[in-house]
Amino acid sequence: MNVIHSRVFTDAIVARGLTKSFGGTRVLSGIDLTVPTGSLLALLGPNGSGKTTTVRILTTLLAPDGGTATVGGHDVTREGVAVRRTIGLTSQQATVDDLLTGRENLELFAGLYHLGGRRARRRAGELLERFDLAGAAERRVETYSGGMRRRLDLAASMVSAPPILFLDEPTTGLDPRSRAELWAVIRELLASGTTILLTTQYLEEADQLADRVVVINEGRVAADDSPAALKRQVGAERLVLRLSRAEDLPRAGTVLTGPSSPAAPSSFAAAPAGPGSPTDRELTLAVQDPDHLRRALDLLHRAGIAVEHVELRTPTLDDVFFELTAAAA
């Protein structure tokens, strides 16, 4: 039998003006965010931007210096016990025991939630099936792959069937196949009505899974909208040029954007290639007019800079992220 949470609320998570400092360092400077019930919000930001601090406050692991927050309708500072009964948390570090089997781990967590022996065994069996771990249920976790371990960790956070789930960078370090498997599990949880707040380093992950994206930069909310709307805000298409020689990259940026080149279109905005770029020879440019492609190639040709590959693509969340966090780079 699953634990039943009957409280009804429209917005599962609401934060207003959250602040937090450690010593003399201000980490959060007035964070506002809202997560409607049954949706997934992705929290993005550079390292040190305050993502994990925000999650720790919302899950009652850390007290804010200022501001308010409710989770499941409960105040995180005054109703901590009620909040913890409403949520599940998968942190960056796995919480499962390597020396126990998958089944033993889940039964242990069920015991911590005060489920009796029979109920604990039943719940563990349900979760092992749901997270595709039944075939490895009797194996020690130390024999699990990284993807299996993360699925077990996620299953452990779902023992009490919480309506609200916090996932703090759950796929970091996983290979692409394991990441895709965990995405499928997250989609299933979302489809079943679970509210999810996800922090991630992978912008593609946010693009694939999130209903809304909040970008935090230097302790403040830099953007809050749907992935599609954020990409529209960036506007211009992206021209990706892969040069034949890496040593030409700085000069190419100057040719296309520098003040010493009066022929360069003013709408060009050079940016570094995004994560996962196959080489260090790529230059990404924002272009407002398709004719800028011809003009860019002409400028590079006249400067004696050889281009190996040309691609014109629509903006991605990577572009949004770079644009919003450029000031802190």
UniProtKB/TrEMBL annotation:
Residues 252-281 are annotated as: Disordered. One of its GO terms (biological process) is doxorubicin transport. It is a peripheral membrane protein. Keywords: Antibiotic resistance, ATP-binding, Cell membrane, Membrane, Nucleotide-binding, Translocase, Transport. GO terms for cellular component: plasma membrane. Residues 258-278 have a biased composition (Low complexity). GO terms for molecular function: ATP binding; ATP hydrolysis activity. It is found in: Cell membrane. It comes from the Bacteria. Its main location: membrane. Residues 13-243 form the ABC transporter domain. Coiled coil: none annotated. NCBIfam families: drrA (TIGR01188). Belongs to the ABC transporter superfamily. Drug exporter-1 (DrugE1) (TC 3.A.1.105) family. This is ABC-2 type transport system ATP-binding protein. It comes from Nonomuraea solani.
